[in-house]
Amino acid sequence: MKRKVALVAAAFGILVGGPASAGWPDDKPIEVVIGFAPGGATDVMARKLLPAVEQKLGGKVKFVVMNKPGAGGEIAFAAIQRAAPDAYSIGVVNVPGYNLIPLTRKTQYSMDEIRLIARVVDDQSVIVVPADSKFATLADVLAALRSKPGSVTFGHNGAGTNGHLAIRMLAGAAKVEPNEISYRGTALQRTDLLGGHLQVGLVSVSELPELHGGNKGPLRAIAILSKQRSPALPDVPTAEEQGVPVTMTAERGFAAPKAIPDEIAKKLEAAIAEGLRDPEYLKASPGDVPVISFMPGAEWQKRLDDMNKALQPFADVMKAQEQK
């Protein structure tokens, strides 16, 4: 009977007992879903890195970036989960939003149905203002809010993102009430900051390559939300130095449907690791260089599982506020 089954399988071109993914990647495009608008840190990171990953995979494949912004990245995360587990449709996940959003409400995706492939960057959050802003320091912003609650607009890239969580943490630590405005990506925040429609923005170090080393340009960083100053922005004090002990980073990396074959996941993980060391990529992406922080998928998953414990109290507060 086993021999008959094998013969039938062979007749229909089915590979019995062998790796169905042996031919991956074939000569066909691989879609990479991004949960934010073009021009932001996630989009730029992917578009700069993926050509190097293509070469590490043999050079016969082509990654095609698909931007699906909205709901703090949830639309893209759900698309990753729903994709066929053949690794011809993958995506980028953004932490903390990826693991925070399901703690606050029912979502279109489950972390249990997505496999992390590799973390690429660990990007510190930065508070920025227009260069001609009246706010010279974080203390100036907080003083204005204490004088008149809600008087200063703060931009972030959607519910559950690092910027959103950072604003909530700042508000709690400094006991102020900022006027939050949600955007679909950093590029839109930047446009409104430069146009005078937004007073304060929450972005990441990699999104400010023009400020690295000098903090000079149309925008100006007034605080970095990390334990130590960034080598990229050495003159920008931490929030803690200014009396507000708040830290927040944005982690970004690649993920695929849970059922992706192990051999494909490992091959993709290795190609990403090699791509991050590629000289051409490093030269083309100076904004990412200070924040590159590769981590294998399994290790990254464990980190997020541990992170959820720390995020739960903030998630509970967010749920309570939304229910009012």
Descriptive report:
By secondary structure, this protein is α/β, with parallel strands linked by helices. It is 38% helix and 21% strand. It is built from 10 helices and 10 strands. Strands 1, 2, 3, 4, 5, 6, 7, 8, 9 and 10 form a 10-stranded mixed sheet that branches. Strand 1, helix 2 and strand 2 form a beta-alpha-beta unit. Helix 4 (97-104) packs across helix 10 (297-323).
List keywords for this structure.
324 residues, alpha/beta, D-Maltodextrin-Binding Protein, domain 2, ten-stranded mixed β-sheet, globular, disordered N terminus
Secondary-structure map:
Layout: H1 2-11, E1 30-34, H2 41-56, E2 63-67, H3 74-82, E3 89-95, H4 97-104, E4 114-130, H5 138-147, E5 153-156, H6 162-174, E6 179-182, H7 186-194, E7 200-204, E8 219-224, E9 249-257, H8 262-275, H9 279-284, E10 292-296, H10 297-323
Parallel strand pairs: 1-2, 1-3, 5-6, 5-7
Antiparallel strand pairs: 3-9, 4-7, 4-8, 4-9, 4-10
Helix pairs in contact: 2-8, 4-10
